[in-house]
Design a protein that fits this description.
The chain is of the alpha/beta class. It has three domains: about 210 residues, HUPs (Rossmann fold), CATH 3.40.50; about 70 residues, no CATH class; about 150 residues, Orthogonal Bundle (Arc Repressor Mutant, subunit A). The chain has 24 helices and twelve strands. It has a five-stranded parallel β-sheet with strand order 3-2-1-9-10. A three-stranded antiparallel β-sheet has the order 5-6-7, with no helix packed on it. A hairpin with a 5-residue loop joins strand 6 and strand 7. Helix 17 crosses helix 23 and helix 20 runs antiparallel to helix 24. The radius of gyration is 29 Å and the shape is elongated.
C-alpha cells in the first residue's frame, strides 16, 4: 500500500500541484532562513473583504499540501500594507468628513472612524485577524508600518537605493509619459503633514542612505530611506518585501498579472528570487462586475456566515480557483449541499481519492464525522411549505422523518435549520412567483395526488420518487425535467427545487397532498399553515 506522501506526489488536486512546484523551487532542501515562507497580502484601505479570506484559505490549502510532501518547516505571513497612503474614503464606513481630511496619510495614522482602535489601519487589521482566527488559520501577522519603522526592511531599502537606476529602468516603461517625469520608487513621509508624498526625487545618495525630493512648496528635502521615513511605491514595495522576507509562494488575482511580472523583475534586480506565484480568477457580484472592497459590492464574510456554515465558504474558495465566479447570495445553498456531499463521500473513500476530495483540503485531512440527514435545499423548501420562522415547527417534521434526530443530539442539523429559515425569509420568500398549472400539468398533479394517496404510510423517499417519475412519464413530459420544473413553479413558486421524493418523505404524504390541492385551487404557499 502506498504511503500518503507517495500518493501526494501524484495527487491531481490543484493544491498538491502547487506544492510540488514549491518543492521543486527549493530543490527539496530547507531554505537558508530555515522554513518555506507562504505570504498573503492585504490592503487595509477598507473593511476586510471576503476575497482576503479566500486568499488566506487557498494559500493555507497549498501550505498543508506541501507539508504532506516534505518535513521542511513552513510559515504563513499575513502581511498588511497599512503604511500605504489613504487614497479615498470607503462609502460603507462612518465619519466620512473626518476621513476625507486625512487623505494622504498612512492608514495607521488615520483616526479610526469606529472609535475602537488607534487608527483606521489598526481597526481593519483587527477585523481581519479576528475573522482569520475564527477559522483557525495558523499565520503570523505582519504590519508594514512596524516593519518599516522597526528597521526590519532597512537593509532591503538600502539595497533598492543602490539599485535605484535598475529599478527605474524596469518601472518607467510601464508608466505613461507624464508619470515617468516624476516617478520614484521612494515615497517620502512628510515630517510636517505626516502624509505619504508623491514627490519627485532629484538626487539619491546610496552611501548616505538618503534621497533628496522636491516638495510642493519647491523646497528640496533630504531624508533617509530607512526607519519608516520613506515608503515604497507598491510594485517596488511588493518586490522589496519578497526580497527582505524571502517569500517562497504568494498568490494573487488575475488583475495583478502585470504587477507580478514587474515585481519579479525588481526582485531579481535586488539579487533575490521572486516567489512561485499562482493567479486566481476574480470574484464577481450579481451583475458580473468585479467585487471591490471600497465599493462594498458582493458578499461580506459576515453575510455568508449569517446564512451558512463557514465550511461551505471554504469549499467555494477551493473549487475552480482559475474560473471567475459570481459571489452572491444565490450561490450559498449549492455550496452548503456540495460540502456535505463531499464530506459523506470522504468517509467511504480510499487514501488516494481522499486527497482529491475538497474536504481533505478544508480540514487538513481530518474532517469531523458529523453529517446531516437532510439537505439544505430540502430544508429551504420545508421552511417555505411550513411558512414559519420557528425552528420547532421544522423540527416537528424532521423528527418524524428521522426519529433519532433532535436539536440536542444533532447540533449541526439544528444550525442548518436556523440558516435555512433565515435564508428562506430573506431571499427565497420575497422572490417567489407561483403560477397556475396548464391543463396537462393539472391532470398530472391530480394523478400524483391519487398515487401518493395509495402509498402506505411506511413508503420511503425512493418509493415516493418512483411514483413522481411514473406520473411524469404517464403524461409524456419530454424532457422529464419539465415535469419537475412544473411542480417547483406551481407548488413552491420557484423554477428549481428539491428531490421530490425526499421532500415529500420529510414533509409528509398527507401534508403534500394538501399542499397540491391548495395549489390547484390557486392558493399560494403564503396561506399554508
Amino acid at each position: 500500500m502506498s504511503s500518503v506522501r507517495e500518493l501526494a506526489l501524484e495527487a491531481k488536486a490543484w493544491p498538491f500541484a502547487e506544492a510540488r512546484r514549491i518543492l521543486k523551487r527549493i530543490g527539496g532542501k530547507t531554505p537558508e532562513k530555515g522554513y518555506v515562507l507562504f505570504e498573503t497580502g492585504y490592503g487595509p484601505s477598507g473593511l476586510p473583504h471576503i476575497g482576503t479570506f479566500g486568499e488566506v484559505s487557498r494559500t493555507t490549502m497549498v501550505r498543508r499540501a506541501f507539508e504532506q510532501l516534505s518535513d521542511i518547516p513552513t510559515k504563513l505571513f499575513a502581511f498588511s500594507d497599512d503604511m500605504d497612503g489613504f487614497r479615498s474614503v470607503p462609502t460603507n464606513v462612518p465619519e466620512q468628513d473626518m476621513l476625507a481630511q486625512n487623505i494622504g496619510k498612512p492608514l495607521t495614522s488615520v483616526p479610526d472612524p469606529f472609535g475602537t482602535h488607534d487608527s483606521f489601519g489598526a481597526h481593519n487589521n483587527a477585523r481581519l485577524r479576528e475573522f482569520l482566527d475564527r477559522f483557525g488559520f495558523e499565520y503570523e501577522f505582519l504590519s508594514a508600518t512596524e516593519c518599516y519603522q522597526s528597521g526590519r526592511f532597512d537593509e532591503a531599502l538600502l539595497t533598492l537605493l543602490r539599485e535605484y537606476d535598475a529599478v527605474q529602468s524596469i518601472m518607467l516603461p510601464s508608466l505613461g509619459e507624464e508619470r515617468q517625469q516624476t516617478y520614484s520608487p521612494f515615497l517620502p513621509v512628510c515630517p510636517e503633514s505626516g502624509k505619504v508624498l508623491q514627490a519627485p526625487v532629484v538626487e539619491t545618495n546610496a552611501d548616505a542612505g538618503t534621497i533628496v525630493y522636491r516638495r510642493d512648496d519647491d523646497q528640496l528635502i533630504e531624508t533617509p530611506v530607512t526607519g519608516g521615513r520613506c515608503k515604497l511605491q507598491w510594485k517596488p514595495d511588493w518586490a522589496m518585501r519578497w526580497f527582505a522576507l524571502g517569500v517562497d509562494y504568494e498568490m494573487s488575482g488575475k488583475d495583478l498579472i502585470d504587477s507580478v511580472r514587474l515585481s519579479g523583475r525588481i526582485t531579481r534586480a535586488l539579487g533575490g528570487k521572486p516567489p512561485e506565484s499562482f493567479t486566481y480568477e476574480l470574484f464577481l457580484d450579481e451583475n458580473g462586475e468585479k467585487i471591490s472592497k471600497s465599493r462594498g459590492n458582493g458578499l461580506t464574510m459576515e453575510e455568508w456566515l449569517t446564512y451558512a456554515p463557514g465550511d461551505s465558504l471554504s469549499l467555494f474558495m477551493f473549487q475552480k480557483p482559475n474560473t471567475a465566479k459570481r459571489l452572491h447570495f444565490d450561490v450559498i445553498p449549492k455550496a452548503v449541499d456540495e460540502y456535505f456531499t463531499f464530506k459523506e463521500k470522504f468517509a467511504k473513500e480510499d487514501d488516494a481519492a481522499r486527497l482529491q476530495n475538497p474536504v481533505w483540503h478544508i480540514h487538513n485531512g481530518a474532517p469531523s464525522a458529523d453529517s446531516t440527514p437532510i439537505s439544505f435545499n430540502i430544508l429551504l423548501n420545508l421552511a417555505g411549505a411550513c411558512n414559519t420562522e420557528d425552528k420547532a415547527v421544522l423540527w416537528g417534521f424532521i423528527s418524524r422523518y428521522a426519529p433519532d434526530a433532535a436539536p440536542e443530539s444533532h447540533p449541526l442539523l439544528d444550525d442548518l435549520v436556523a440558516y435555512a429559515i433565515r435564508y428562506y425569509q430573506d431571499f427565497v420568500k420575497p422572490t417567489k412567483q407561483y403560477r397556475a398549472p396548464n391543463d396537462v400539468e393539472r391532470q398530472a398533479i391530480l394523478s400524483l395526488v391519487d398515487a401518493l394517496g395509495a402509498l402506505p404510510d411506511s413508503a420511503d423517499a425512493k418509493e415516493i420518487q418512483n411514483q413522481v417519475y411514473e406520473v411524469g412519464k404517464k403524461f409524456e413530459f419530454d424532457p422529464l425535467r419539465d415535469w419537475f420544473k412544473a411542480l417547483y413553479e406551481v407548488l413552491f413558486g420557484q423554477d428549481q427545487g428539491p428531490r421530490m421524493g425526499s421532500f415529500i418523505a420529510l414533509y409528509g404524504i398527507e401534508e403534500t397532498i394538501a399542499l397540491m390541492r391548495r395549489a390547484l385551487e390557486g392558493e399560494g404557499l403564503s396561506t399554508a399553515s
